[in-house]
Amino acid sequence: MGLSKKNKSQLLFGGVSDQSFGKRYNDDINKPEAFFRWLIATYRKQPNAAKDLSELANIKFNLLWDQYMTSIKSARVSEMFLYWFATVWIHHNDIPKEAHALEDFNYASTWEEYNVYLMAGGKLPKRPLTLEEIYLMDQLCTRTPHTCFINTEQPEQPMGQISQYYKLTPKELWSKLQTWYGNPALDHPWADLPLGICPLSLLVYDGARVAHVITAYAVWKNRLHYTDSWPGRSLLCKENNSADIQARKSNIISPGWSITTEEFQRVVFAFFLYKYPLVVVRQRNEHTK
Fold first, then answer.
1. Are 225 and 256 in contact (CB under 8 A)?
2. Which of 120-134, 189-203, 243-257 has the lowest mean pLDDT?
3. I want to staple 210 with a disulfide (CB 3.0 to 4.6 A). Which of 115, 168, 206, 243 is the partner?
């Protein structure tokens, strides 16, 4: 989302520089097409589900709209909790960083503190996240040490809170991801994920408008396949960025997008690699059974 006013060299990751923070959520959830996407996706999961809108013509849409808004608001509450956790909690508490301390830490235990903070009139900063905040939040939520790999050709960032990092060229970063995704010993957070597919946070910057976080899932046939939380088309689609990145729909991640090796090297800012601790793998694997 551009450079912070406080520190011209510090990037804030959360979208595009000419759109106000939070605007994308309010705009997207009220769009009819967003509602219909949710509607079809939800009812296709049911027995004898409707296949298209014509089969849904007799359903009471007011009731369905209420269900849709409830699901959106629930996700929004969780998202704002994590935002508070990254922008407020980590700046006022001792942060566990060692492997054993991270494994014992449960970020969900701070929900009560979050509610107390809001009830006391606490305000959330209206800005996206810094590299350090994203790194710390990822590390605390996954309960395992992260290693940050950062692009030597992107602007320097404050790194004091990042325990372990390496600065690599764009080509070296691509090679690192290829090696990591091709590793048969890769620990997966979900039991049913095939080898070579695993989510990780990847920060991108186009040098002008877009400073954003996407979720990489795989490197396949010289393309990075990822998901993008930005509503509608990915910010790495041609019309949304200043680096002429032309993301296209992924053929292995749905819904998802993909970019070429050269496009990745042009916009990659940083990513975090890690292994899930056994306690987290065990909990998530049991959840999928």
1. yes
2. 189-203
3. 206
Domain edges within the chain: 22-78, 131-288
Cα–Cα dist 268/153, whole Å: 9
Asked if 170 and 178 count as a contact pair (C-beta separation under 8 A), the reply is: no
DSSP state of 164: S
Nearest alpha carbon to residue 218 among 271, 267, 181, 191: 181
* pLDDT in the model for residue 238: 93
Nearest one of 273, 277, 276 to 162, comparing CA atoms = 273
CA distance 106 to 169: 35
Q: For residue range 187-243, what is the model confidence (pLDDT) as tens digits?
A: 555 555 566 777 889 999 998 888 899 999 989 889 999 999 888 899 999 999 999
